[in-house]
Specification:
Number of strands of chain B: 0
Structural class of chain B: mainly alpha
Radius of gyration of chain B: 21 Å
Order of helices and strands of chain B: HHHHHHHHHHH
Structural class of chain A: mainly alpha
Largest sheet of chain A: none
Oligomer: heterodimer
Distance between the termini of chain B: 18 Å
Strand content of chain A: under 5%
Chain lengths: 167, 195
């Protein structure tokens, strides 16, 4: 699976590169530049994020996490994860390593899905800094109310999907 | 090719995280013992080497998508459609919008100023935040693996539609907020630059 994913991604990258090249040399070069720049920025960050996640996982006691949001915690765990995910006031550089830690400590997959959805749609630092200033509080309120059911639903969807396709 | 400055790569936030890694590493060494420390270190190093080729390809995909799909075009797609198709278009656009909140929120602001409906804006933002390909490619795929990323993607596919539909049942409120025309204009500006 890992090897095939690498092949698939490189195939897709080459295909899109060819499309960009047909659009013009400049387009392809700009795409390449953006990628290289982002890659060089992200490699050292992922390296330290992975290390931190690994160390914290070794330090954290697994049992409480497994009991709260483990695979056996079911819809209760999904609810707990949905409630806590929105309170991670940071971008992906914190939240994804955090998720790795939770996973290593025994969190269940549907619970992690709910956690990530809650972080994605509720992340209050984003609401505070960008959404409320650009769109106004009323828009934020409407969007947040519309999104309340999304984290638990995504967890339940994931639970259902896992019954059909084992992960 | 533009030169990549080392100062940009190893900036403040990197050192904060490097410090965090050093601190947790020390704590791990002292509390859990040297064996646990080296085990963790070796596992992470292996995982890191394993994900590098995937990450490189994933970021190439994201980079090419970014230049092939200029923001102005994305904005036009969303603005033109309404109804269920509008929600679908908004969800698709959210998936491919690259960049962080400093890209997506100004775009939403510009779309709102251009008259795009509330439910499409909400579907767009939900899709950008839960299904955004760039975040999946650069963080989720390398750290959590293909199977997890795929499962979460499938489980999250209906979410933008649901949020958009629910928002239609909510009472209409004027979403003027703190905006005045000047703010709208400056926020709308980047969209016209097609990048």
């Amino acid at each position: 699976m890992t090897a095939s994913a690498t092949v698939f991604l490189w195939g897709l990258a080459l295909m899109l590169g060819a499309v960009a090249l047909r659009r013009g040399r400049d387009t392809a070069r700009r795409g390449l530049e953006i990628s290289v720049e982002r890659l060089s920025g992200i490699i050292p960050r992922i390296a330290v994020a992975l290390l931190t996640a690994g160390f914290v996982a070794k330090l954290m006691p697994g049992e409480p996490i497994a009991a709260l949001i483990g695979p056996e915690s079911g819809w209760r765990g999904i609810l707990v994860a949905s409630l806590t995910g929105g309170f991670v006031p940071a971008g992906p550089i914190i939240s994804f390593p955090l998720v790795v830690v939770l996973y290593k400590a025994g969190a269940g997959i549907p619970q992690i899905v709910a956690f990530l959805t809650a972080w994605s749609v509720f992340a209050f630092h984003r609401v505070l800094i960008y959404e409320s200033t650009l769109m106004g509080w009323r828009f934020s309120a409407v969007r947040l109310v519309s999104s309340v059911i999304l984290p638990p639903l995504s967890g339940l969807f994931a639970l259902g999907l896992m019954r059909i396709i084992p992960v | 090719m533009k030169r990549i400055s080392l100062r940009g790569i190893f900036d403040g936030s990197f050192w904060v995280f490097a410090g965090l890694a050093a601190a947790t590493g020390t704590a791990c060494y002292l509390v859990a013992g040297p064996t646990a420390f080296w085990e963790s270190f070796r596992d992470d190093a292996e995982l890191f080497i394993l994900i590098l080729p995937k990450l490189a390809a994933a970021l190439l995909v994201a980079g090419f998508i970014q230049v092939l799909l200029p923001r102005g075009k994305v904005a036009r797609w969303i603005g033109e459609r309404s109804g269920l198709r509008g929600l679908a278009i908004a969800s698709g656009a959210g998936m491919v919008t690259p960049g962080g909140p400093m890209t997506s929120f100004p775009l939403v602001n510009a779309l709102h100023a251009a008259g795009t409906g509330r439910s499409a804006l909400i579907a767009y933002l939900t899709s950008w935040s839960t299904l955004g390909l760039q975040r999946i490619l650069s963080w989720e795929l390398p750290l959590m693996g293909v199977e997890f990323a795929l499962l979460r993607f499938l489980a999250s596919l209906p979410l933008p539609f649901l949020a958009g539909m629910v928002s239609r049942w909510l009472p209409e409120v004027a979403i003027a907020g703190p905006l005045d025309d000047a703010a709208t204009r400056t926020a709308a500006e980047p969209v016209d630059r097609d990048g």
